[in-house]
Write a structure and sequence with these properties.
about 75% helix
Length: about 140
């Protein structure tokens, strides 16, 4: 067994870690995304959008703190998928690019990150964005 084989990360661990990290990140940052989106879309033409603090205050007053998480399931699932693919593919590329001593040089680490980003784009981002924009909205169906 070479030094390269000893440090290999279990793919299930990579996928699970990435998926969990992506889900937590999506859940933790969702209120900010929600506030930004509501602020952007509630502005009337020619008027300034409401301040984010106003959006938060109104949402919490009307729906409670859980109102800030309205619709977060899709974002959390998408982030979980993206991060899972990224972690899994990065560890795979990293293992492939280690030298004979089991070391990963900085340029090879950069290459592994590039490969992971490409896999994330191909298998997670592009399909989810395609679905998001290909499915007609209620207004388009009417």
């Amino acid at each position: 067994m070479t030094a390269r084989d000893k440090s290999k990360v279990n793919p299930v661990f990579s996928l699970t870690s990435g998926t969990l990290a992506g889900a937590v990140e999506g859940f933790a940052t969702y209120p900010i995304e929600y506030t930004k989106t509501v602020s952007q879309f509630s502005a009337k033409p020619g008027e300034k959008p409401p301040h984010p603090f106003v959006v938060v205050r109104q949402t919490v007053a009307k729906h409670g703190i859980t109102g800030l998480y309205s619709g977060c399931g899709a974002l959390v699932a998408g982030n979980a998928l993206k991060a899972g693919v990224r972690f899994l593919s990065y560890d795979h590329f990293k293992d492939m690019l280690k030298n004979e001593e089991g070391k990963l040089t900085a340029p090879r680490s950069l290459l592994a990150g590039l490969g992971a980003g490409m896999m994330e784009a191909i298998f997670a981002v592009t399909p989810s964005e395609t679905i998001k924009y290909a499915v007609p909205t209620h207004a388009e169906r009417s």
